[in-house]
Amino acid sequence: MKRKKLLSVCTALAVLVCVCVFSLNHSDNHSESENGTHTDEFISHYIDVGQGDSEFIEFPDGKTMLIDAGTYQYADTVADYINELGYSKIDYLIATHPHADHIGGMAEIINKFDIGNIYMPKASTNTKTFENLLTAVQDKGMTINTAKAGMNIAVSDEFDYSADILAPISAEYDELNNYSVVIKISYGSNSFLYMGDAEKEVEEELLDRGVNIKADVIKVGHHGSNTSSSSDFVKSVGAEYAVFSVGKDNDYGHPHSQTLKRWKKIGAEICRTDEEGTIKISSDGRNIKADAS
Q1: How far is it, in rounded angstroms, from Cα 66 to Cα 290?
Q2: DSSP letter (8 states) at residue 254
């Protein structure tokens, strides 16, 4: 009897050890959040929303961020994309500035998802699109955090990431684009820069203040217009990947040939949503990988 009991105990222990090893092998790169299972990578999705902007970000701890949501016509595209990734909550929602090609789909996103914090610049317009966004925020009983340079909006010592707002710097700009919320996200030794529609005036402010704008990946400002991406700025960023969010055969001539030339000159790989569709760039904190849909 003793021998049988000992054998049973040994068998049970062996099974338990196998289960533990299996679990460890399948959880090394995954953890859990209220949004579900996710990898320990940082992933930035540059969603194809035509002539507009929308970037969805997965942090390594399962938190999420959405920067802009394209025009109203692309609201379902953005919402469906996020749903298909398995997320029901957006922890950080950023409306870079009140132009329809950036905030047009924002009201629907607010209505469809659980929203954590909302950040917008202190800039406004009298358009119906902007009013719809404000109404959606109000109806959900939320408040807007005013985005300005120097704010840290997300940080994790455990997962080694940080998201900081670099602009807007000034309280007064003549051009609405220059109120754009500029965000830099660092994960391990890699960094990602999101420029909204910020133009050369903002680029010069960042350079004059000595702000660290160096990044491995940049979402190029103002869809690659020649009003952005000055030579000094491009050199200082030194990106390995330059992402252009543009509509196919758009009427604006975006991206401008000179802008493309500047980024190519520093050796950046050009990624365009009009040619590649939605672009996904991921980082393990050391290495970067780019894929297109």
Answers
A1: 19
A2: P
Segment 86-142, tens digit of pLDDT: 999 999 999 999 999 999 999 999 999 999 999 999 999 999 999 999 999 999 999
Question: How far is Cα 280 from Cα 293, in angstroms, rounded to an integer?
Answer: 8
State the Cα–Cα distance between residues 89 and 283, nearest whole angstrom. Answer: 22
Counting every residue, how long is the chain? 293
On the question of a cis peptide bond just before residue 168, with omega within 30 degrees of 0, the verdict is: yes
Q: Please name the residue that has the structure tokens 């990624």.
A: 271
Q: Which amino acid is at 26?
A: H
In degrees, rounded to 5, the angle at the alpha carbon of residue 184 between the alpha carbons of residues 153 and 175 is 95
Q: Strand, helix or coil at 134?
A: helix
- Is beta strand 144-146 parallel, antiparallel or unpaired with respect to 279-283? unpaired
Residue carrying the six token digits 């049970």: 12
Is the pTM here over 0.85, yes or no? yes
H or E stretch at 132: helix 128-139
Distances (CA, A) of 41 to 35, 77, 153, 229, 290: 15, 24, 19, 29, 13
Domain ranges for the chain: 33-292
33-292: CATH homologous superfamily?
Ribonuclease Z/Hydroxyacylglutathione hydrolase-like (3.60.15.10)
* Interatomic CA distance for residues 152 and 154, integer angstroms: 6
